[in-house]
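tool_call predict_complex ligand=1,6-di-O-phosphono-beta-D-fructofuranose
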Amino acid sequence: MTTLAQWLTTETEDAALRGVIGSMAAASAELAGVLRQAPIAGQTGLAGATNVQGEAQKALDVISNDIVLRHLKADNAVAVLISEELDEALTLSETGKYIVATDPLDGSSNLDVNVTVGTIFSILPSAGGLLQKGRAQLAAGYVAYGPAASLVLRIAGDVAVFTLDPAGAWIVTATAAKVPEASGEFAINTARERFWDEATTGYVRDSVAGETGPAGKRYNMRWVGSMVADIHRILMRGGIFLYPLDSETVSKGGRLRLLYEANPMSWLVEGAGGLSTTGHQSILDVEPTGIHQRVPVILGSTEEVRRVEKWYARG
Ligand SMILES: O=P(O)(O)OC[C@H]1O[C@](O)(COP(=O)(O)O)[C@@H](O)[C@@H]1O
Ligand SMILES: [Mg+2]
Ligand SMILES: [Mg+2]
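tool_result ok
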């Protein structure tokens, strides 16, 4: 059995980077324990506050952020923390070499129904400043708190998957995860159809048409409503995830956040052989203009993302 610490030593010689990843993994292992007993502790409800995005915070959004913050503070290598739950970037260490951007609890609307939630993180060099393209990431990962807790991680090479054992250690369970090139599954919130642009409408219409339609095959639709869970399924067995720009989100630039949702997920999906796009460019090439910036997100199996890109290219 290979542990996370053993895998990290084969992936990077940078001990400080290994330390930061280890801190995020330790924070997530602690959070897995908190989530397991959250209904008993009465923690699945609202916190009574709103975050900078104007969204009602759940008690566990705040608890998750506190856990990540405590672990990263103890690690002097992190200069700045950017979090969905913090209005401003928070300086942690004047000498730190890294920026961590995190969605400490993704999919928190699923908490009260005991459906998979997650933690997403992105690690960047602090020398590059707060607003760096996704391409500048040094590492990224997420944890899916499902029937098993899975940590999915990529530094610069392959994407590895770890499973949390009962003693709290992360054990390697896959070393080179690959997103299958082709798939017959798409994930989109179809209740938003009336807001969609022509490209999204066209792609979904072609897919739903099945074997006799332009795509020439049958599709299934899946939507968990936790990005982590939807992307984990796509990483494991293929598919495409779409949260495109639509007429309702256009003034905000999209729904999902660039620095701590779209960029780390794109780093992982592209590292596993898949593609990411806003419809017009790879998400990893988007120039950030703000730490809580939103962006259209389309990612997954190459063939499917290319089909969507073709629709966008039609103009
Ligand atoms: O409510 P919708 O439109 O289904 O959106 C679901 C999306 O919103 C999110 O829950 C946003 O993340 P947070 O829970 O961290 O705010 C994604 O995980 C998910 O893909
Ligand atoms: Mg999220
Ligand atoms: Mg969140």
